[in-house]
Specification:
Order of helices and strands: EHEHHEHEH
Strand content: 5-15%
Helix content: 40-55%
Distance between the termini: 34 Å
Number of strands: 4
Bound molecules: iron/sulfur cluster
Organism: Methanolobus halotolerans
Radius of gyration: 15 Å
Shape: globular
Protein name: Zinc-binding protein
Strand order of the largest sheet: 2-1-3-4
Structural class: alpha/beta
Oligomer: single chain
Largest sheet: 4 strands, parallel
Number of helices: 5
Pfam family, one: DGC
């Protein structure tokens, strides 16, 4: 196979870029990216390296088939970092738009995680 050309039967690489911000919704964005990765529905990536123009991280992003930004709030730090680096964000998901209110508390409740994960499945299916 020619290098760089993927076989159609190979699984697509879905890059999950969470903002991982310093708030409950930022941490929820990260938690969701972790859970989706464990479920095999995508791969959590190093979002901060995109903002820092770290070459290895940029290369990994170039190797994805789809880019999903998961932001905690409408400031959209992950999405904007990706776009600033020249990437097209295929899907932008914002945790506050899924019904979670932003606060400074970093403790995620189990039932909130379950609720947001259920809503994520709908958001990803759209
Ligand atoms: S999108 Fe919102 S929660 Fe996430 S890093 Fe930016 S300001 Fe923080």
């Amino acid at each position: 196979m020619t290098e760089g050309v993927k076989c159609a039967c190979e699984a697509a690489i879905i890059g999950l870029y969470a903002c991982a911000g310093g708030s409950n919704v930022g941490q929820m964005a990260n938690k969701v990216a972790v859970e989706l990765t464990k479920q095999g529905k995508g791969k959590i990536m190093c979002t901060v390296g995109i903002g820092g123009n770290v070459q290895g991280i940029i290369k990994s992003a170039e190797g994805t088939d789809e880019i999903i930004a998961i932001d905690g709030c409408p400031l959209l730090c992950a999405k904007k970092s990706l776009e600033l680096a020249g990437f097209t964000v295929d899907k932008s998901i914002v945790i506050t738009e899924l019904g979670m209110k932003k606060s400074g508390s970093l403790d995620l409740q189990e039932n909130d995680v379950k609720e947001i994960m259920a809503k994520m499945e709908d958001a990803l299916a759209d």
